[in-house]
Amino acid sequence: MLIYRILQWLLRVATRVFYRRLEVVGLGNVPADGAVLFCGNHPNSLLDPILITAHCGRIVHFAAKDTLFESPLLGRLLRRMGAVPVRRRMDHPDGPLENDTAFAALHQVLLEGRAVGIFPEGLSHLDSQLAPLKTGAARIALGVARKAPDRPVYLVPTGLVYFTRHRFRSSVLIQFGAPLRVDAASFEGEDERAAARQITAQLEARMRALTINAESWDTLRVLDAVRRLYQPEGITLEERVELARRFNTVYPTVAHHPEVRDLYQRVRSYQRRLSAAGLSDEILRRELGVRDTAVRAFAHLALLLFWAPLSLIGAPIHAPLGLLFRIAGRAASPRKDTVATTKFVIGFLTMLVVYGGLAALAGWKIGVWAAVMTALILPLSGWAFVHVIGRIDALRHLLLTLVRVFRLRAEVAALRAERARLVTDVTAAVDRFRPEEMEPLFGARN
C-alpha cells in the first residue's frame, strides 16, 4: 500500500493548504488495529472521504457509488484508494442492484482487520441537519459478526463540520466519537433486521452528537468561544460537544435580547483581538512566559519579514491560478454540494501539473539543480502565498502589528482582564436565559 500512503500524505498536505484551519478531535477513539467502520455525515461530496482518509490514521476502503467509477481519471484514483463500487437505487431506478459482490468485498476488508468508510445518510446533501441514517453500516458489521463471531467490528461515528463549506481557506472540524462495538452478541435472541435498526439508532444518536450546526460560520465560531468561556476545567469531549449543542440550540431563541446581542459582539471583538495578537483563548488560562512571548513575537516578525516577501516569488503564478480555481469550481460543479470538492480536485491536480511542469522546464533549460530548486521553492512560495492571504488583515496594519509585537505582554494583560469579565457575564447570561426544562450540565457555577 505504498502508493496509498504516498497519496494519503499528499492529501494530508493538500487539505492543510485548502483549509486555513483544520482541527482533528478524538483520534484516541480510533482503534489502532482491528476491524473499523468509519461512519460519517456527508455534507461535502468527495471532500468528506478525502478528509477522513487523510486524517484518521488508518488505511480506509470507502464504499462509493458506481457512477463515480465511470470517469477514467476519478475511477482510477478511487481504485488506487481501495474504494468499492456500490450500485444505488437512485442511480439505477430501472436496473438490478446486485450489491452482493460489493458487500462481500467490504466484509473481506473487515475480516482482515482493516478499515472501511461509509456514509450512512446515503448521499451528499446541503441540509443543515443530519439526514435519517440507512441501515447499511449496521448490516455490514452484523454480516462480519455472523461470519466471524470472535472478531468484533467497531463503528466509529465521525462528524465533519464545515465552516463556509465551499470556500478555499475556510475551516473544518473532524471529530471521531466513541466507537460502537458490534459482535455476535449484538443480535442474539433477535432477528438481524431488528438488530440493524437498533444499532443504527445508537449510531445516529452518536453522530448527531458530533454534528453541530448554526446559521453561519461567524455564529458557530462565536458560540464556540462562548462555550470555552463558560465551561469548567477538565470536562470530557462528550460534555464539550453537548455544551456546544445546547448553545447552538438555545441561541436562536434568545438572540433578539439586547443583552445577548451586546455579549455576542463583545465575544467576537475579543476573538479578533486574540487573532491579531497571535494568541488563543487556551493560552490566556495560564501565565504567558518569556518563551511564549518570544515565539509569538517571532511569528509576527516572520510573517512580515519572511512569509510576505517569499509569497511574492510565486504570486504571478498562484494569484491567477487561485482566481481560476474559484471560477472553475463553481462553473464545473454539477451540484451545489460538490463545489468545494471540484475546487479541491482541480486545485490539487493543477498544482501537481504546474509544479512538475515548471520543474521539468527548469531542468531542461538550466539543469538538474534548477529543477530541484524549482520543485522546492514553488510549493514553499505557494504555501507562503496562502498563509499571507489568510493573515491579510494583519498586513493591512503593519504598524499596529509591530506595536503588538513589542507590547505583547500589555496586550495579554488587557485580554486576560477582558476574558475574566466575559466569563462572569457569559455565566450570568447562561443562568438567565437557560430554558427552565433544561437541566444544568455542570450544576451551579460561581
Give the termini separation. 55 Å
According to CATH, what is the topology of the largest domain? Glycerol-3-phosphate (1)-acyltransferase
Helix content: 55-70%
What is the number of beta strands? 8
CATH superfamily caption of the largest domain: Glycerol-3-phosphate (1)-acyltransferase
The dominant shape is globular
Q: Give the helix tally.
A: 15
Mean pLDDT score, rounded? 82
- Strand coverage percent: 5-15%
Measured on Cα atoms, how large is the radius of gyration?
24 Å
Topology order in helix (H) and strand (E) letters: HEEHEHEHEHEEEHHHHHHHHHH
Largest β-sheet summary: 8 strands, mixed
Number of domains: 3
Could you name the CATH class of the largest domain?
Alpha Beta
Looking at the overall shape, the CATH architecture of the largest domain is: 3-Layer(aba) Sandwich
Describe it for me?
The chain contains 15 helices and 8 strands. It has 3 domains: 2-211, Glycerol-3-phosphate (1)-acyltransferase; 218-286, no CATH class; 290-406, no CATH class. Strands 1, 2, 3, 4, 5, 6, 7 and 8 form an 8-stranded mixed β-sheet that branches. The protein starts with a helix and ends in a 13-residue tail after the last helix. Strand 6 (153-163) and strand 7 (171-176) form a beta hairpin. The protein has helices at residues 2-18, 47-55, 72-80, 100-111, 136-147, 192-208, 217-230, 237-254, 258-277, 290-331, 339-365, 368-390, 392-396, 398-406, 408-433; strands at 21-25, 35-40, 60-65, 84-86, 115-118, 153-163, 171-176, 180-182. The radius of gyration is 24 Å and the shape is globular.
